[in-house]
Specification:
- This protein is an alpha/beta fold and 301 residues long.
- The chain folds into two domains: 35 residues, no CATH class; 265 residues, Metallo-beta-lactamase, Chain A, CATH 3.60.15.10.
- Strands 6-5-4-3-2-1-13 form a seven-stranded mixed beta sheet. Strands 7-8-9-10-11-12 form a six-stranded mixed beta sheet.
- Strand 10, helix 8 and strand 11 form a beta-alpha-beta unit.
- The longest helix is centred in the N-terminal third of the chain and has 12 residues.
């Protein structure tokens, strides 16, 4: 309880990066862990960008990591996936929200997956294991990639989502639940819980396009420690982007207030949104608990 209270004070005043990483690593060394560590490896939507005006927030497409007590959870494999350190001391899971290019294009460019000792369980709340395997067999066949990725890498284990859930339930206090998102072709969000903590990952989602889906998201995000939000557009852009499957920064602010989540990280930034523009938008957010995700950013909850 004392450690928890100290954490809340430090987060309130912004003292939470290296200090808490040291605490967490010491706890894990002694088999104790009360926190989740979230690392953003890619925060852009649609297409990567590498120009100078985009480098502060980062130009890689979406990839989010959550380090848990016994597991490493990875969400989507955009170009940011190339920078993920595949951990040797715990089971690695890679969950896909859907299979648009900006969420899968980085998979073959992380050299660690070519190490046969690195077992990666791949799953999705959107499709079954056979369909999931078929997606990547087609996406990385020799016509599009130099080697047949799925056939070559036997350490990539395509697994039914309900089996993943059962395995987590039987071996840990970690849980993951899928949740429907509003996106062309379908997409799955995820709710991750462990040790009384809850993180919600809602990429890619168009808020306002399906009232039932929106109500469900608001319900499950109630009191969440962190919501990761799709803020690709601005409110003024939504009219011309209806049906594209993305939300706005302003909708993220409203969602945070209505859901009473503790923090919201706005991500999936538009590829043409410069650092200067993002910083100006971030500076106008109404609370310090609302912020824009950036590459290499680490959040402790």
């Amino acid at each position: 309880m004392i450690l928890r209270s100290l954490y809340e004070i430090c987060f309130t005043y912004g003292i939470y990066t290296e200090f808490w990483l040291v605490i967490i690593r010491r706890q894990r060394k002694h088999g104790i862990n009360q926190f989740m560590e979230i690392i953003f490896h890619g925060v852009r939507g649609s297409t990567p960008t590498a120009h100078q005006p985009f480098l502060q927030y980062g130009g890689n497409t979406t990839c989010t990591e959550i380090r848990l007590d016994q597991f490493q959870f990875l969400f989507d494999a955009g170009t940011g996936f190339q920078n993920v350190e595949i951990l040797k001391d715990r089971q690695v899971y890679l969950f896909f929200s859907h299979f648009h290019y900006d969420h899968i294009q980085g998979l073959p460019f992380n050299g660690a997956i070519f190490d046969p000792s690195n077992s990666v369980i791949i799953s999705s709340g959107l499709v079954n294991a056979d369909d999931l395997k078929h997606v990547f067999t087609r996406a990385f066949q020799p016509m599009y990639f130099p080697i047949p990725l799925v056939e070559t890498l036997k350490n990539l284990r395509f697994t039914e989502f309900n089996k993943v859930q059962s395995n987590l339930q039987s071996s840990s206090n970690t849980a993951i639940e899928p949740i429907k998102l509003n996106h062309p072709g379908g997409a799955s969000g995820y709710i991750i819980t462990e040790n009384g903590k809850k993180v919600c990952c809602f990429l890619d989602h168009e808020f306002g396009g399906d009232n039932d889906v929106d109500a469900n998201l608001l319900s499950v995000a109630d009191g969440a420690d962190l919501v990761i939000w799709d803020g690709m557009f601005l409110e003024t852009e939504l009219v011309s982007k209806k049906g594209w499957g993305h939300s706005s920064v302003e909708q993220g602010v409203s969602f945070a207030e209505k859901s009473c989540c503790k923090k919201i990280a706005i991500a999936h930034h538009a590829p043409n949104r410069t650092d200067e523009q993002l910083k100006e938008l971030e500076n106008n957010l109404p609370s310090d608990n609302m912020f824009f995700a950036a590459e290499k950013m680490k959040i402790i909850v």
